[in-house]
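ESCALATION

Customer reports they have been waiting on this structure for their group meeting. Please prioritize. Original submission:
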Amino acid sequence: MKKVLLILMVVCVYALHQDFWLWRDNTRVFGILPIGLAYHAGFSILAAIMMFVLVKFAWPSELETVEPQQAPGEADK
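Update from on-call: job pushed to the front of the queue and completed.
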């Protein structure tokens, strides 16, 4: 279930990235910032949160195991 929710989250964020509805909108946020730029600023924050969630819940634990390194001259035994 967790995997399905994570995939759904990625698909939703990807769909939100396609902001074709703001291409011709001249609205200003705070009187100076174009609405498309403000949208992408918010989208960047959302993408960062999504990446945090993905690393927290989908990162493979086997990548975190540290194996001892051999000295350069040692042969495998």
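Sent to customer with the following note: Residues 31 and 38 are 12 Å apart (CA to CA).
Escalation resolved.
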